[in-house]
Design goal:
six-stranded parallel β-sheet, 6 strands, 235 residues, Undecaprenyl pyrophosphate synthetase, alpha/beta, 9 helices
């Protein structure tokens, strides 16, 4: 078997997805903006199942950034409603399918009931083995690094003892491998603060489809493209 053929068989262990284009999808279909968000959150469950069926072990999705709080109050309120529905009841089917769920980001930005619900879901699914779904809520890559540094400062860690490994162990993603592949939907070609520390050697894949239109076939195409690339890690 030639190296090129072998590389086409590679499946990324960890995929990150920036969920972009919900509002543009809604406008394109003559629907209210909020309907785009609803379709987008339904899509998360569909793609998570598709990813694990295709051999991916960890999926991390960028659902709501620290900057998204600056959107219109009505839109933010609706998104918070969706978060509560997803965390409260929307995760049940994923849990029954053996999927483990985790939440990254500034949990203190949410009310106590939602924080408690997140903890409950994480605890209830911690032994699930089919795949890991990490959901980034009120998340920013720089903010994550700042929070990690504050943890180290609170423990009075000597600067000489701070290493890349130590920083990684204090990020939201501690314990999970860095993403092999990051996908962004809706045509934009930037990371917008997604997994800033973890993405230094991630392969990037941009697709024009808006997130609600993204399908399992689109995911498979991204994985095939990943399999054709050579990762050198600076060598």
């Amino acid at each position: 078997m030639t190296p090129n053929k072998a590389s086409q068989l590679k499946t990324p262990i960890h995929i990150g997805i920036i969920l972009d284009g919900n509002r543009r999808w809604a406008r394109a279909h003559g629907l209210p903006t909020l309907e785009g968000h609803r379709r987008g959150y339904d899509k998360v469950k569909e793609i998570a199942v598709a990813a694990f069926e295709q051999g991916v072990k960890v999926l991390t999705v960028y659902a709501f950034s620290t900057e998204n709080w600056r959107r219109q109050k009505s839109e933010v309120a609706y998104l918070l409603k969706l978060f509560r529905l997803f965390v409260g009841t929307g995760t049940a089917d994923l849990a029954r399918q053996g999927i483990r769920l985790n939440f990254f980001g500034r949990r203190q930005d949410f009310d106590r009931s939602l924080q408690t619900a997140m903890q409950r879901v994480e605890q209830a699914t911690k032994n699930n083995q089919r795949g890991v779904l990490n959901i980034c809520l009120s998340y920013g890559g720089r903010d994550e690094i700042i929070r990690a540094m504050r943890k180290l400062a609170a423990r009075k860690i000597s600067p000489a003892k701070i290493t890349e490994e130590l920083i990684s162990r204090n990020l939201d993603s501690a314990g999970w491998p860095d993403p092999d592949l990051i996908i962004r939907t809706s045509g934009e070609q930037r990371l917008s603060g997604f997994l800033t520390w973890q993405s230094v050697y991630s392969e990037l894949y941009f697709v024009k489809k808006h997130w609600p239109d993204f399908s399992g076939r689109d995911l498979a195409a991204a994985i095939r493209e990943y399999g054709r690339r050579q990762r050198r890690y600076g060598k």
